[in-house]
Amino acid sequence: MNESHYSETRQAPPRTGMYLGAAGAAGLLCAILAFASPQQFWPGYLVAVNFWMSISLGCLGIALIHAVTGGRWGYAIGRSLQAGIGALTVTFLLSWLTVIGAGYAFPWAASNRAELLNPNQMMYLDPLGVAIRYALFGASWIGLGFWLNKLYRREAADRTKFPPQRLAGVGIMVFFLTVSFAAIDFMMALSPSWASSIFPLIRMLNCAVSAMAVMILSRLIHTREPSHSQTALTHDLGNWLQAFNMLWTYLAFSQYILIWGADIPMEVEWYIARRTPLGMVTAISLFLFHFVVPFLLLLLRPLKKRTQTLSIVAAMLLFMCFVDIAWVSLPSYHGAGVMSGVAAVLSIVFIGGIWITAYSRQYAKLPDMIVEDPHAAHAHKAHAHDAVAAHPGETT
């Protein structure tokens, strides 16, 4: 029989001074680098924005999926998912700092944009139009997050109040469309002459992998002594992490095979730009540590049943998600160099300190959630009622 309650407890407001201090120090260094070498800094800052945004968007997408499907696994990480969604607002606001260095961060906003873009791209990637689109995307994400937070609190107080599945299905469609266009505008369009119809799906799965990795790490921090049912839930989360990562690998490899095999110059040049010595080492590292090693480790059931060991794989995948975003983004800039990588790391600390602070404070404000899936319990009771009605003279 499953235990009734999740093993987390509501916490007092966390001490986040260390994270804010690190963010402040990194922010100061970022400001110096942005002033001294904007051409190197802003590409790195965009990498960091995309990384932290991907975690919050991944939390939003997973929460929407759970609102449709249900399942104990979602209730086990519901509080962490809501905290990650709550941190989306601050990340969204920090992303607008790229407006300061838009000409350096986005090739389509540079002074020579007319030389890089065709007439259709000039219209679609008009800086004002992109800004309006992004504002609408952010409003939809924050609105969906607010709605999911309200549903979470209502269901935590009364488990008979189920999320409206049809509305959640509409939310998934909105999420899919907005994240797809955001991936095109802020990652794929960094190489204006290149396009891939599968690219937005790859970016969405990067969001899912990074978010699930953070959820597992959060369980390591917040979960008390694990019970038998908690072990089963940890195993479920390991399976989700494996599934998301395998889908990411399948789509990323399919994109490579299709483009490289077709040998169309305008498409192949995207991969050629990443065939530098550093780019090849990074690509091999992604293959080994974003797929091969995690895939083999996550086949081990004992590893997936222990939060401590599963967290090691989750931390590795979270780091490789950052490497993936950097590998996709930085080679698209002609002026990007080692200092762009340094800027990315500093910006990760700057945004990350603020993100973790927002996450921790949101987490402390949220109520606990019962792990047992109320949908399953409701279906079981209905089935038992039907059985009694069909055989009124029998006893169970």
TrEMBL record:
Spans traversing the lipid bilayer: 16-36, 42-65, 85-110, 130-148, 169-191, 197-217, 237-258, 278-300, 312-330, 336-359
Residues forming coiled coils: none
Taxonomic superkingdom: Bacteria
Keywords: Membrane, Transmembrane, Transmembrane helix
This protein's name: Quinol:cytochrome c oxidoreductase quinone-binding subunit 2
Organism: Planctomicrobium piriforme
Organism placement in taxonomy: Bacteria, Pseudomonadati, Planctomycetota, Planctomycetia, Planctomycetales
